[in-house]
Design brief:
Elements lengths: L7 H7 L5 H9 L3 E12 L22 E3 L3 E10 L2 E9 L5 E10 L6 E9 L20 H7 L4 E10 L5 E9 L16 E12 L3 E23 L5 E21 L9 E19 L6 E21 L2 E11 L4 E2 L16 E12 L2 E11 L6 E13 L7
Antiparallel strand pairs: 1-2, 1-3, 1-18, 3-4, 4-5, 5-6, 6-7, 7-8, 8-9, 9-10, 10-11, 11-12, 12-13, 13-14, 13-15, 14-16, 16-17, 17-18
Length: about 400
């Protein structure tokens, strides 16, 4: 579950085939079933609901304080027939209720390197977005994922990938979807509400190193997107509405090194991602009071870099640095005296973690963070987490 890392050339051949345990499980039971149990303890100095400075119009996934059961994840997958395979991942909320993270069908016999996926899935943009929470190297996502994607971009739609017939790993993909995930708006309309294009390339460097790089483009539209408690120039917390176009470009790079190719003993993984989003349209300021509508546009960005070091079997440590740029907004004349255009502050966070995996089915983690994402509200954070896996569970992507 945790220790198997496919090489890039292996990806090019078979897109990282399931581990032997999963293969055995799926042949013995139809469908294969897995359950991820997770929980955490969080100690924070500041209220987790306060958003990063300059990102009050974006959702804030926040953190949980105290003891928290976390989100259990139930997975079911099986071959449907020689042409199709189905996968469903259900999130069990600790407060009750079930939500559908993934529920998709993908082809198994299109040929010529093509693969079609349809249903509900995590978008293929970037590097981290397709990974489920139990596969993250930290207990939370980088700031840029939290602020720009509400942790992860999920979509209802179609995804088509093409794997080039080359020794070097080259993958090109595109998606059309409803646009239900932030920054889109879940609208009742015909046609698609969002689109994604992405390309990934990678290769091995001898037996010890491998790399993968990618670029992504996401486009969607927000309609009457409501944001509460947004600060204005007078220090008031107001409710605003935004309608307009949203376009995000992203770059990602991952490099891995394992001495003598033996990653069971030790390995190093370094990864970084950068996203830049431009939104333009109309902003209705203080809808419950002044309710003034005028033009609005802003370009916001963020990035992170992190390194993970497995220094001995079953033990890993990692360090991550995040930074956001809220940008300078262009505001119409009617709201020039109402809307903050330039926050002149770049939110940052530094995070360190260490974890221990008694087996490939369990992980225990301690994480410390120095969070300066809210101006004047420095937060030193502690998290303790457990992740336990039961049942057949295939390997994760590169």
């Amino acid at each position: 579950m945790f220790h198997r890392i496919c090489s890039v050339t292996a990806l090019a051949v078979a897109l990282c085939p399931p581990a032997s345990a999963a293969e055995v499980g799926e042949s013995a039971f139809n469908p294969a079933f897995s359950l991820i149990l997770s929980g955490s303890y969080g100690s924070l100095q500041r209220a987790p609901a306060i958003p990063a400075t300059g990102f009050a119009m974006n959702p804030n996934p926040g953190h949980e304080q105290g003891f928290n059961l976390g989100e259990s994840e139930m997975g079911i997958s099986a071959n449907i027939d020689p042409q199709f395979r189905g996968t469903a991942t259900l999130a069990l909320d600790p407060a009750g209720g079930i939500s559908v993270e993934n529920a998709f069908v993908q082809t198994t016999a299109l040929g010529d390197g093509f693969n079609l996926k349809f249903g509900r899935y995590f978008s293929g943009l970037g590097y981290l977005n397709e990974l489920h929470a139990h596969a993250w190297d930290f207990s939370d996502q980088p700031l840029v994922y939290a602020a720009l994607w509400e942790n992860q971009l999920g979509e209802d739609g179609l995804q088509l990938k093409w794997l080039a017939p080359t020794e070097m790993f080259v993958e090109i993909g595109g998606e059309v979807g409803k646009g239900r995930g932030f920054p889109g708006s879940d609208r009742a309309k015909n046609g698609s509400g969002a689109g994604v294009l992405f390309v990934h390339a990678g290769d091995d460097i001898g037996i010890e190193q491998s790399w993968r790089a990618g670029a992504s483009l996401h486009r969607t539209r927000r309609v009457d997107a409501e944001s509460a408690d947004v600060p204005d120039l007078n220090g008031n917390a107001v409710t605003n509405l935004f309608s307009g176009d949203s376009q995000t470009v992203g770059l990602d790079l991952v490099w891995k090194y394992a001495p003598d190719g033996n990653l069971r003993n030790s390995y190093i993984k370094v990864q970084t991602e950068y996203f830049r989003r431009k939104e333009s349209g109309e902003l209705s300021y203080d809808t419950v009071g002044a309710n003034i509508t005028d033009s609005y546009s802003v370009t916001q960005s963020g990035w992170y870099v992190q390194g993970v070091y497995q220094f001995m079997p079953r033990w890993r440590s990692a360090l991550r640095y995040d930074q956001l740029d809220p940008g300078s907004a262009k505001v119409g004349a009617l709201n020039a005296g109402n809307v903050i255009a330039d926050y002149a502050y770049h939110p940052t966070r530094t995070t360190w973690m260490i974890d221990y995996s008694p087996s490939e089915f369990s992980r225990l983690r301690v994480q410390l963070a120095h969070d300066r994402s809210r101006q004047g509200l420095t937060d030193n954070q502690l998290f303790v987490q457990y992740i336990m896996s039961m049942g057949a569970h295939g390997a994760h992507q590169y």
